[in-house]
Amino acid sequence: MIFAIKGALLTLLVTTSLNVYAKKLINECQTIDVQINTIKLLDGVSVEMPLVANASDCLGAFEGNNSAFDKPIQNLGYDEDGWLNKEDYNAWWDGPGAFVNDVDLLDLDGDGAEDDPGWILVGKEEQSGFEGGVSSDGTLTYNHEQLVTLNHCKTGDEDNTSCFGGEAVKGQWVYTPPAQNPTGLLDLVGGDFFDQVAIIFKAGNAFAIYNFNVIDLGLDPALAGDYNFAFTGTWDISETLGSGLSNLSFWAKDPSVPSVQVPEPATLILMMMSGLFCFNRRNKA
Fold first, then answer.
1. CA 244 to CA 237: how far, in whole Å?
2. Residues 170, 236 contacting (CB under 8 angstroms)
3. C-beta of residue 164 within 8 angstroms of C-beta of residue 246
4. Number of domains into which the chain is organized
5. Residue 45 lies in a domain
6. Which of 110, 273, 259, 123 shows the shortest CA–CA distance to 195?
7. Could you give phi then psi for residue 275, rounded to 5 degrees?
8. How far apart are CA 205 and CA 61, in angstroms?
9. What is the pTM of this model?
10. Most CB atoms within 10 A, among 22, 103, 152, 260?
11. By C-alpha distance, which of 266, 262, 187, 250 is closest to 222?
């Protein structure tokens, strides 16, 4: 009996310690850490235009290894399938999923309940290369391709370095989706998808998550037959994480809000240019 009680107490202490360890906030991320600099409609005609925008939101930096967290199985954004789709996961967010409120929930699995956050793992890149996520409903399967690449990676002293597994704490990123949404993916997630993305930077024994919402950019999610947008930008984790980047994960979310009216090209250009004057750079002092 005594041994059983001691064993139970030990289990409780270990579990509590692990939970405290997993929840530990080691630094406050800043939305300015990850920025968009340019945008281009992939219609074969449009040119790249300036667009200055910070991430819409961010979480972390948290202590822990995000690669060890619950991975999605069907990877279609269903409730509890993958750690970004879990409610209040490790108390890192207060809601049914990362960057998701109750009003954003969908019925993606067709069970009659609007309880699905919608996050889909696109893939992870590290020193050994890119590993794409796989989405499947049991009949159809889609292997996700790499959408985000990093380049011009630098150390804190501005020396060139490899983007993964070295001392890279800053650099540039490029988001290049296919010109139009692939039929195989549309067959699984429907014709209207991806209104948010989440980029997870892992460095040392910590990670931070950065969220971009297309609504904040004045854009609609791409419908079947629409052309996608490509983006370029910068990233700087020198203050938030401090260590060299070890891996990068990319998630995308099914849309949960009505489409917004896309501005006419001239209006969109004015919006982008006005952002150049309203934007405040990080104070490095």
1. 9
2. yes
3. yes
4. 1
5. yes
6. 259
7. -65, -30
8. 10
9. 0.82
10. 22
11. 262
Give φ, ψ of 80 to 5 degrees. 70, 5
274/285 Cα distance (integer angstroms): 26
CA distance 278 to 57: 18
Tokens 């014709």 sit on residue:
191
CA atoms of 110 and 79, how far apart (whole Å): 12
Q: What is the pLDDT of residues 111-152, one digit of tens each?
A: 999 999 999 999 999 999 999 999 999 999 999 999 999 999
- Give the length of the chain: 285
Q: Using CA atoms, how far apart are residues 62 and 241, in angstroms rounded to an integer?
A: 9
AA identity, residue 93: W
Domain-located, residue 12? no
Residue 178 counted as domain residue: yes
Token pair, residue 179, equals 């010109």
Closest CA to 22 of 58, 64, 68, 59: 64
Q: Output b/e per residue, 192-224; b: 16+ Cβ within 10 A.
A: bbbbbbbbbbbbeebbbbbbbbbbebbbbbbee
Which tokens in the block code for residue 163?
């983007």
Compute the CA torsion angle 37, 177, 146, 167 (nearest 10 deg). 0
Range of the domain at 158: 27-278
- pLDDT > 50? residue 277: no
Helix (H, G, I), strand (E, B) or coil at 81: coil
Which position has the token pair 């969908």?
106
pLDDT tens sequence across 209-231: 999 998 898 887 777 788 999 99
CA–CA separation, 239 vs 25, rounded Å?
Answer: 14
Asked if the structure places residue 264 within a domain, the reply is yes
DSSP string, 128-197: TEEEE-EEE-SS-EEEPPP-EEEEEEE-TTS-B--SSSSS--EEEEEE---SB--HHHHHHH-SB---EE
AA letter at 126: E
